Amino acid sequence: MRVLYCTDTYPPQVNGVSIVTAVSVAGLARLGWECAVAAPSYPASVHAEWGGQGLAEDGPTELVSLQSVALPGYPEIRIALPRAAGMHDLVRRFRPDLVHCETEFSIGRMGQLAAARAGVPAVSSYHTDFARYTDAYGAPWLRGTVSSYLGRFHRRSRRVYTPSTASREDLLRLRVSNVQVWGRGVDTEVFHPGRRSQDMRAALGIGSRYTFLYVGRLAAEKRPQQVLDAFRVASDTLPRGVIHLVVAGAGPLEDQLRASAPPGVTFLGTLERRGRLPDLYANCDAFAFASVTETLGLVLLEAMASGLPLVATPAGGVRDHLRDGHNGLACPAGDVGAMARAMMKLAGDWGLAQRLSRGARRTAEALTWEGEIERLDRSYREVCAGMSGNQQETVVPRPRSLSA
Fold first, then answer.
1. Does the reported pTM lie above 0.90?
2. In whole angstroms, what is the distance from residue 124 CA to residue 171 CA?
3. What pLDDT is recorded for position 327?
4. List of domains in the chain
5. CA 377, CA 355: separation in Å to the nearest integer?
6. How confident is the model at residue 126 (pLDDT cuts 50, 70, 90)?
7. What does the pLDDT read at residue 353?
8. How many other CB atoms are found less than 10 A from the CB of residue 280?
9. Positive or negative, the Cα torsion across 120, 121, 125, 131?
10. In Å, how far are 23, 66, 302, 372 from 53, measured between CA atoms?
């Protein structure tokens, strides 16, 4: 079986969509699929962020890099300008049984057009809540327009994959059918509390301080400023040197956040994700996250797999995994004071912190990529066989192991 992925983001670019796409390609390849990927080209400087991992071993049968340019004001995002004729040629040459449009932008849309022209079934993914991004970027009047476009895009798909019940509900409101909740996985061997070491904590300058971690884009839709504001309130209330905050990530707000950060905050930029990032997770004590636009929040799963309790808002995809008092502490959206109080509560109650840490790890252990890839394989084969119908979230028998 052959599948062509059409995506506007892919490794070496590091974000939740690119990671999930790369994991899908690698997992399906181990199950015998031939996978081709059409994605933007990236400058050499971006490749270091991926650490050379995942592009060759269990990678796509073919990777087509399309010419791209940096988005003005947000250079981490690449805009590709594919030619329709080129995408049609790729479909004709690769002869996929299925086209998966991972993103709703130029490459994803060209993939839809090429699939329709060739008579190949097309599916899509809804990874990102762009309609709610309009509020974060001060353009709420565009929300209806963006929602309408997303609805039209996904209604063209035989099946739509999205990682949370909240995002599935959003799609159903847009009159999108055949929506399947898929993609809630984490590598619990790579992201593991056993990577913790006092030597690394010393190297990071953490020492014995209770350390909160933020990992993600430093952009308005992620609300990193709220995390810094809450940390400021908590650190001003507690004795000096009790807590610390580490920020890993890059984005358009980075300079502003660095300039306004209170004492006790360390910025690390973007880290290589197969070694340095898992080490960082394991050597911090809790994970702070304020975004309300996540369809999943892959970093939350990575944090929980590393044994970090969450301090987050149960909105969007986060609400599927955050259990207040079990694996973290829930905070109302936009409530800096509540987040600060949660930080102080964790830092001041060792027993609570340890109990939530164990709960976080148990939550992550139930979310394996192996199971998700096997479900994707089954779903793809159903689509290729012409099956239809509204796909609810169900428990399915486990087929053969990926390692078999």
1. no
2. 12
3. 98
4. 2-185+368-384 (3.40.50.2000), 193-365 (3.40.50.2000)
5. 36
6. very high
7. 98
8. 21
9. positive
10. 11, 20, 17, 21
